[in-house]
Amino acid sequence: MAGISTKTVHEIFRTMEYGSSSTNTATTAQSWLEKHSRTLGFFVDGTFSSPADRQTLDVTDSKSAVVCSTVCAKDEDVMSAVSSAARGFTTWRELSCYQRAKVLLKLASVLQRHSQCVSELCELSQSSTSPTVLIRLAQYYASWAQLRDTLMPEWTPHGVVVVSDDCSVYFLMLKVLPALSMGNSVIVVPGKTSALPALLLAQLFMEAGIPAGVLNVVTGSEVSLAAKLAQNPQVNYLTYCGCKQTGEAVAKAVAGWGVPMSFSLSQSSVCPFIIFDSADLDSAVDGVIELAFKKKRDFQWVLCVQESVLDSVVARLKLRMAGMKCVSLVTETDRNLIDVVVQEAQQQGATLIQSCPPPSTGGLYPPTVLCGLAPSCESVISPPPGPVLPLMSFRSSAEGVTLGNHSPHGQAASIWTEDLTLALESAKSLCLGSVWVNCHSVMDPALPICGRRESGNCTDGGREGLYQFLRPSLSPSLPRSSPSSINYAAFGSVASKFMIPEGFDPSSVPRFYPQLVSGQLRKADSGCSRSVLAPGGAVLAHCPDGGRKDVRNAVEAATKVQPGWMKKSPATRSQSIYSLADSLDKRRRDLAVSIQTQTSISFEEAEKEVELSISRLSDWAARCDKEQGGTPFPPQSGSALSTPEALGVLGVILPSSKPLLSLVSLLGAAVAMGNAVVMVPSEKYPLPALEFIQVLQASDIPAGLVSIITGSRDQLTQALANHSVIQSIWYWGSKEGCQFLQYSCINPLKRLWLHCEEEEEEAAGRNWSSSNPSLQEELWRKAVVWKSIWIPTA
Amino acid sequence: MSARNPGMHLDLEWVSKVRVNTQAVLKRAQQIQGHKVAKKQWQAAWMLKAVTCIDLTTLAGDDTPSNVHRLCMKATQPIRHDLLKSMDMHDKGITTAAVCVYPSRVADAVKSLKAANSSLPVASVATGFPAGQTPLKTRLEEVRMAVKDGATEIDIVINRTLALTGQWAALYDEIRQFREACEDAHMKTILAVGELGTFTNVYKASLVSMMAGSDFIKTSTGKESVNATYPIAIVMVRAIRDYHLRTGHKVGFKPAGGIRTAQESVVWLTLMKEELGDEWLDPYLFRLGASSLLADIERQIYHYVTGRYPAYHELPMA
After folding, report:
1. Nearest chain A Cα distance for residue B146, angstroms
2. d(Cα B95, Cα A319) in Å, to the nearest integer?
3. CATH architecture classification, A29-265+464-471
4. Residues 6 or more apart in contact with residue A286 via CB below 8 angstroms
5. Cβ contacts of residue A153 below 8 Å, gap of 6+?
6. CATH for A268-455?
7. Which residues of A fall within a CB distance of 8 Å from B26?
8. Where is average pLDDT lowest: A51-55, A227-231, A236-240, B82-86?
9. Residue partners of A494: CB distance under 8 A and separation at least 6
10. Taking the model in full, what pTM does it have?
11. What is residue A501's predicted lDDT score, i.e. its pLDDT?
């Protein structure tokens, strides 16, 4: 590039080139780094510390020059960070909402003051985030901090929250700020690119007056650092944002330690960009150009174009891409990956749109569109890194939606059409977290980001995203434990032993209760059954010994019924649940008897439980059409919708306490929100659930929507965990069961709600009889996922 | 010079399929305005390019031969010679693209330019400028007379009544007739975008004008309340691109009205480069209709050359 500055006016006049934009010297960021001698330690207890003899890690800029090094944490650093955060939490918790809000508001103005430094440092560490976006985040969450006690009374913060991030500063702060605003203290484990900005932000937080220890930043080289932190008993929650592999490693390392975890795996998500024939094609192509060929993308994209406009789109892409310069790759190894994928695609008949031929070697690649691909092509299944965009075509708009949905990911989609009805219909049918209509990648904290399927199991942003950092004051937190050695592969495979009861009395043959699978009364697929014992040990009845195949049949039926149930109007769902309550009312005596025989409580108490169950079902029936999303204010003009949607099919391993009341509470929440559910009654007290099958059969609830399968808890847990259709598992059971689920439900990803029942009994578990609104709210929020729809207008 | 646009039959199906998403266009416009052009010689070169694309215009009731003469002289030497010389651009034929006057002043302009030995084209607005609310017969006659007086470029205004009521066939016929009346003179069709209501209508009117054989499409007369804005330009330029993709004919673009600063002229060039490519960065396919823009560009060039900001009286007036 030598001689670029010696170009004469006439030469430029002839070629009309742009010239290189002014080189950013990043002076303020450099001087900040200089002040820290270009070695940044941890930010713990309100100060920077860089202990001696630690490994260091170099942070490089886009030209691979080392700008700074960070220190890698050892075990003692983990300890000191956690105890700092625990102390920080006690201080932070004691402050009033107003005082916490004040800190966040102050942060917004501090960010404003240092915006130059922030933006330069983000740029330098290749994690470009604009300071205005961060200021918006700070202001948004300051108001939530202010309103916590007013709008969310009866909810308390978790305590110490570990936020681990591999994406960008925006996604990091989208977890850190709500955690802080709800009163938690936070330990940040930043990824390579967000390390420097995170450390700078920690310092700015101090300037804004945050008490020492409330925000800590620990850096390290290994993925296990977040896991190490979470294993500490003083940590209460772990949330991770990044790519799938790391998330999986973290989950497996933390399984069994009794820490709830959540994952936003946006980075490895593949999102469809759908252009319908009713679209403003030029604007759509502009959108493609803008998002697909950046050096660092938040998500991977796949372009889907309706066949009737395919040629027009391709022609426009060719025009717009002509003359685009090569994009530098994040690492040079990406180049090999791209070469392999592109070659394979070409062998399968794909044609390339490329602005220029790729340079023979090195970390540069021209913007490339691979045309004529099919969903089975490797480059569609896992698009390569770098500026390569796969393109597929579809026939009808319905097929476009199917194409977009047929993917293990569920992060976001961008759809382009001028037809409002089509836009709203497609937005509704796409099974993903965010739908951008005629726009893309718009982010604002007012709207939740809620990945589905492999893209995540938690909700960030919006009011909806605050609840991951809170729990109802009445609900106990998961007791801490240490993992046992479990053979994960063999979990639940031990066949339950059927014992022929001793002292068989021919005069009172115990009754056989069938289970409910696919809406029918059935024996177990294996044909085996097990005995239901009274607390004294006497055989009360026999029930099927259900297993993997029963779960499979139940799920199959549920997948068929659930979409129809979800599409029904909430008012219709409400009527069906009222009929269930009614049906329970008619059989109240049978149920009370079954509770009494099963748990040996007094008949009055059993009747009371039935009475409460009827009223609980009526609660859910009433709530069906009341819990709804909202229309948050988007940052630009236009409309935005945030709507709750059903998860799909849920698996529930029921608790033993209050066997009927807990069953209807969970069933009611799940079904009211439009889900289908496969329930496993507790091994100990299955009788009321089996009796309840009669109630279900006599109600208007569609056959197959609810299945009740009895059998070995571990075996059925294993079966539910290994069925990918099941989107969420609510579990009451053993410590080992919790550990198994945390370990195995990361791949494929599920939403877990775990309760260790053995220990809960000592710590007084969930109070099912309480009708506290926060407990109800917790339940229905567990039963939904959120979809954000952006419809910008002029 | 590239071949003229011969036009084509009126394809109403194409016109009816036009869709424009307003907010996406606005966003694109913001993006283009945020595009940075390098400083120093790049800026100077780009501004000189803008000068060569200017249709230096006077359209006032009090135009007389003397101010038209001044305008013509300024058009032939738009930047002070010594300034050009210090950039080594004095012998590169830097003039504006044309002068643009009312039909009655065409003869004056032609005379002035001839006397100065300049081949600079004279453009004339015609067809009941600016409202277009006169009978078709007189509008056609106006075109013919301007051509007869020596205008080689005619800026016609479209009949907004026809565009607003969706009578595309009638509009097509009118423009066709204007094109015939123009004979060899290049025809620039003014859409008066400020009065067309929606972006979709702007796109449709652009297509119909091009189908009828316009050599240029032009945003506005400069007399409406909304003049040349970047979002509207993006819509029109996309129509040009669409027309080029389908027919292979290249049609030029002329924003006019309210373009006053050197900075804006650079944004206009960026818009053309981004949307249509380098080929459209040329007076054959791109014009800027302006009167006071030139003065600002000359001041900026003065600043680039000398490092000082000039007073207005230091630069020759138009």
Report:
1. 34
2. 31
3. 3-Layer(aba) Sandwich (3.40)
4. A320, B24, B28
5. A774
6. 3.40.309.10
7. 794
8. A51-55
9. A712, A714, A715
10. 0.90
11. 55
Q: Is A6 on the interface with B (CB under 8 A)?
A: no
A516-626+646-786 CATH: 3.40.605.10
Rounded alpha-carbon distances, angstroms, from residue B200 to A583, B152, B166, B208, B215:
59, 31, 12, 12, 21
Pairing mode of beta strands A751-756, A726-733: parallel
Question: d(Cα A560, Cα A564) in Å, to the nearest integer?
Answer: 8
What is the predicted pLDDT for the residue at A18?
A: 83
Catalytic residue status for B27: no
Buried b (16+ CB within 10 A) or exposed e, A175-207: bbbbbbbbbbbbbbbbbbbbbbbbbbbbbbbbe
Identify which of A21, A315, A438 has the shortest CB distance to residue B38. Answer: A21
Going from N- to C-terminal start, the domains of chain A cover: 29-265+464-471, 268-455, 516-626+646-786
- Our measurement of the distance from residue B19's CA atom to the centroid of its chain's CA atoms, rounded to an integer in Å, reads 25
Q: Do B23 and A438 touch (CB under 8 A)?
A: yes
A438 contacts in chain B (CB < 8 Å): 21, 23-24
- Three-state secondary-structure class, residue A135: helix
Q: At A520, is the secondary structure helix, strand, or coil?
A: strand
**What distance in Å separates the CA atoms of residue A76 and residue B31, rounded to the nearest whole number?**
49
Show the tokens assigned to B312. 């207005």
Angstrom distance (rounded) from CA A462 to CA A460: 7
pLDDT single digits (tens) B231-274: 999 999 999 999 999 999 999 999 998 899 999 999 999 999 99
ipTM for this prediction: 0.87
The whole-angstrom separation of Cα A567 and Cα A675 is: 11
| Separation CA A107–CA A102 (nearest Å) | 8
Q: Is B218 a catalytic site residue?
A: yes
Question: B12-314 domain in CATH 3.30.429.10?
Answer: no
CB contact under 8 A, B38 and A18: yes
Q: Which DSSP symbol is given to A501? A: P
Distance between CA A189 and CA B184 in Å, rounded? Answer: 72
Q: Which amino acid is at A79?
A: M
Taking CB atoms and an 8 Å limit, are B45 and A793 in contact across chains? no
Question: Which tens digit of pLDDT belongs to each residue from A732-754?
Answer: 988 889 999 999 888 889 999 98
> From CA A444, how far away is CA A133, in angstroms rounded?
8
pLDDT for res B197: 86
Do A29-265+464-471 and A516-626+646-786 show the same overall fold? Answer: yes
Structure-token pair, residue A743: 């370990």
- The distance of A485 to chain B (nearest Cα, Å) reads 56
Mutate to test the interface with B, among A1, A4, A7, A9 (most CBs of B within 10 A): A9
| B11-15 contact pairs (CB < 8 A, 24+) | B11/B211, B12/B168, B12/B169, B14/B207, B14/B246, B15/B168, B15/B204, B15/B207, B15/B208
Give A634-693 pLDDT, tens digit per residue: 877 888 999 999 999 999 999 988 899 999 999 999 999 999 999 999 988 999 999 999
